[in-house]
Amino acid sequence: MSRTSEPVSSEKQSTGVSDYRDRRRLKYHRPILALLLALSASKLLSGTGPVGIYLPVVLATAVCAWYSGVIPALVCQVTGSLIAFSFLAGPSLWAPVSTLQVHQFAIFLVIGTLTLFLTAHVHWARDLQKSERSLQLIATTTNDTIWDWDILTDQVSLSGNLNGVFGYPGTSLRATSAWWRGRIHPEDATAIWDDLNRCLSRSDQVWSSEYRVRHPDGSYVLVADRGTIVRDHTGRAIRIIGGASNITAMRNAQERLEFNSLHDPLTGLPNRQNFRDRLHLTLSRKQVDDPSAAVLFVDLDRFKAVNDSLGHAVGDKLLRAVAKRIELSLEPDDLAARFGGDEFTVLLDEIRGVSDAIGVAKRLLASLDDPYELEDHSFVVTASIGIAVASKGSHADETLRHADVAMYRAKAQGRARYEVFESVLDARRMNLVQLESDIRKGLNDGEFRLHYQPIVKLRNGKLSGVEALIRWQHRSRGLLLPGEFLHVAEESGLIVELGKWVLETACGHLSLWRSATPATQDLSVSVNIAQKQFSDQKLMVWVRSYLERNGLPGGALVLELTENIILDSSAAAAERMLGFRKMGIRFAVDDFGKGHSSLARVHDLPISILKVDGSFVKEISKGRPALVNAIVALAHELKLDVTAECVETDAQAEHLRRIDCTAGQGKLFSAAMDADSLLALTRSDRHWHFNDNIASGASV
Question: pTM score, two decimals?
Fold first, then answer.
């Protein structure tokens, strides 16, 4: 083989890739090509053997490697008797050619190409088998159905929990997309398939949806589906791999939780917050010429006597019976709700005036006056009803207060009757003004007291904290509970000054308890914060001052907020909460589940503790623990602690311990006590034992 004396250009020399010299030895600086050859790299590099044999192989393999994508780009150039192959990565290969070598090159090119294609196919098959084995492994370790849809062949391979999603036994199944679509609920199928086709036609990488799937027995389950779309080099969708989960139970639990957050668990009627929301919506729609609306506040007369004489079980049955009678006495567009305890409310929309509301009140009184037959007992329970008429410009809370005032007036007039708000407005206003004046005087004269209820860790029975509860030692009426005066304090704005006193006093007592014994070094105090108090810009300044004055860390204080505050929190309020958290102060949501909770707000705000409303804890004793279980599970999912309120029985405490509820408070552990009594409790290092499913207080 001969070569012309054509010199190698300085450009080619600068690349340092390859050249062909008189010693007829093939040299190159980068070994990438040698790795592509089936021949011995050592022979090529050492130059042993005729280059006329190896050169065509080198060239053919290089072309095949370029064609199969191993080498990004190849440029072929023929100059005289030289052929040049340049690669995008940098290397260039120059070699002389002859007719024989061209034929050899063509033969080896065909052989090399076939070899590469066969090798690629073998590797592809192995990768496919490995992928299928991986899918099978995933399918055996999950409760989902794993599926792989080959769009080009319309073959769907399914494995895993087929029974949960499709109602079929076994762990694997092969089908078509038509088979799958035929099992989707007819109301869902078209929308689901249209959405899937849109994702396939676009450049989407993921498709997800929820739909109902029919089981062989005709029932339907709700399925959450999500798949990853595989596309070829042109962007065409060729395959989808995904997983489908049966989320029926989870969705049912969510719906039950949402329903119970809006409804009273005992009667099934809308609860207080639900009623307030509906009333607010009704009043916001009122125009000048619209008919009026009215609220009826219904309170059972002497219901406490029924509970005390016949027990709470009969009392609960009576409340359910009363709720049923109220519903049957109303028109379909009217709304009845259980407001709390033995109180019910009724919303009448589009009435012509107060006469229509009075007619409904009379009908209710007649229906409720009929004897009740419960648990072999026959008795009559009457009701007192207050009526408040609202129209354009009325506010929901104001209308409710008016109806409440009228109801108390009906009780004062002898019970089993109704009263309309207009006739008692002046007297009620005078009473509120007097009570407001008494609160101001009580603050100045030191008439208010704090009692504390222990909060006990259910894991080990140790005292972890206390909740501060305000009391009023009224100079003429005796000891008053919060329900008798806090609403006036909130309406008048005195709640801010009252709240400051509670925070300052609670921090002082906590400092005393913590210094009394080493066992109380981690004791915390929970203080309820009203909405006006929380909105006050000076709250953070006051709290910091009280903590520093008493030498307390931020972690010693828990601020309890109502669900309404959580739901109505603005961005500024959320920022203030973060400021408190930086101080170490924790937030708890009081009476969680009783109102119209927003789970999204709880998740977004810096909440540390959920306090389960006592009405849900009572359901444990009735064999209905589902809601408590759901709230505790939700708290664990959100990484929150849970405190159960109003724990009264051993069975309730034991169930709460089993579901890993963090803490409990209630009469089972201790009633609220004054500061001196709690100091004695901390010094005794008292804790509560849980042995043989029995909770008991013990001193150690």
Answer: 0.44
